[in-house]
Amino acid sequence: MMGIVKNINSFLKRIEKGANSLTQEDLDDNEDEEDMEESSENVEEISDVMSKLAEQIEQIKYW
What we know:
Strand content: under 5%
Helix content: over 70%
Largest sheet: none
Order of helices and strands: HHHH
Number of domains: 1
């Protein structure tokens, strides 16, 4: 679960930067690959849930 939170925080930092560029900090995150592999199923499940949530939020416009 900790790996998921770390990935989300990293993703949010990249969004805040506004550019699609890698920093040294991003490259250093590769040491956590084992944790990411173990949690890949959880990430996929969360991604599916987030996609469904985004779809439902978009539908609010049409209420």
